[in-house]
Amino acid sequence: MYQRTVLPNGVRIITEYLPFLRSVTLGAWFEVGSRHEQPSEWGLSHFIEHMMFKGTEKYSARDIAEIMDQRGGYLNAFTSKEQTCYYFKVLDEHYETACELLQQMLLRSLFSPVDVAKERNVVLEELRMYEDTPEELVHDLFSETLWPTDPLGRNIIGSTSSISGFTSEMIRDYMARHYTADRLVIASAGNISHDKVVESFAKAFDSLPGGLRPVLDKAVTRSGQGLFQDKDIEQVHLCVGGPAPCRHDERRYALSLLDTMIGGGVSSLLFQELREERGLVYNSYSFTSLYDDVGAYGVYAGFNPQQWAQVWDVLRDVLDGIPQLITPEMLERAKSQMKGSLVLSMESTSNRMTRLVKGEMDEGGIVTPEETMKRLEKVTYEEVMKLASVVYNPQDWSWVGLGPRHLIKEDSLCQEIC
């Protein structure tokens, strides 16, 4: 059973009551992420996420860790470009303990200068680890190529310079501007009633002030760009893609079906052509990155540098050949694949909780799995092909390669760079 309540100060509470389970997953989602940061604040959203676990007026960092571990639950968080989420999953009998702990973190964290200094070193190590992970790094380089003048083009963690400048005062100021009631969604899924969740958070957050949502400039997507960054590693990591609809656009259902057919599984066009037919890659997939006002699609492949030209040929053949390669039968298979994946994902309370929030933020209310499946089923072959002609336009492609440039034949590399 789904229910939704909006508190007087604007906090939205959405729940799905599942009395046949023994667990509860609850998330507190703030509509703020790295996109909302000023240049001097680059990485601050992510840094605040870390600092929430470093101690409150009532609990030390060790207390926070031990309380959850002793109860067999987990408490975690993540930051994206437009949201920050703090969530827990526990047995229903430990719900009140977990709620109180989460509320302490969100409302009573200390952000002491000593802890800020220690965590600054931790995050700098995270940045170094990330820079040593080429499959992750190439995606951020791709975003930077698409949105070079917008915060969407920056990575979420920050830079060595920006992270080194964070202070307790910066954290409190940023939270006062962005951690406001009208930008908070509380969502739960599991064996806890809606009334209980409202009771748990209404009083705790009644003093959370509202705020003015920042007006962001519409991101301008740059098309037709290419970049190769030399890195001493074994493989080349490549991303190719371009502009796509935003996360509010009704065409996103058609886009998700296109994404499934092109690179969304082992039967997809890319996987079959690059790996199964030619043995050129171990890993290849397609992806979409959809934001409030813009979006992007892309394909990824990791491969031997000496296979550069062959991989590019396959990518061109697949993306250029979509009108001939995609058939009505493929579309029906993609619909079945997506509906099956959706139903299987509903066996996780974490996935159910996330779906509630995505419906609220993307569409302004609860969107049930049944409604999603109906929308997928309504997508026609003609709609898919019309969108494909817009999205998979070679004139708009941008690409980023990361790897050992000296191992690629210069004439092959020049075909893309020159």
Question: Would you mind describing this structure in some detail?
Answer:
The protein is an alpha+beta fold. It has 2 domains: 2-202, 2-Layer Sandwich (Cytochrome Bc1 Complex, Chain A, domain 1); 226-417, Cytochrome Bc1 Complex, Chain A, domain 1. Helices cover 45% and strands 19% of the residues. It has a 6-stranded mixed β-sheet with strand order 1-2-6-3-5-4, sandwiched between helices. Helix 9 (252-263) packs across helix 13 (328-345), helix 9 crosses helix 16 and helix 13 runs antiparallel to helix 15 (369-378). The longest helix has 19 residues, at 113-131. It is globular, with a radius of gyration of 23 Å. The model has no long low-confidence stretch (mean pLDDT 95).
Task: Compile the SSE list and pairings.
Elements: E1 2-6, E2 12-17, E3 23-30, H1 44-51, H2 61-70, E4 74-79, E5 84-91, H3 95-108, H4 113-131, H5 134-146, H6 160-164, H7 168-178, E6 184-190, H8 194-202, E7 226-230, E8 236-244, H9 252-263, H10 269-277, E9 281-290, E10 295-303, H11 308-320, H12 322-325, H13 328-345, H14 349-363, H15 369-378, H16 381-391, E11 398-403, H17 410-417
Parallel strand pairs: 2-6, 7-11
Antiparallel strand pairs: 1-2, 3-5, 3-6, 4-5, 8-10, 8-11, 9-10
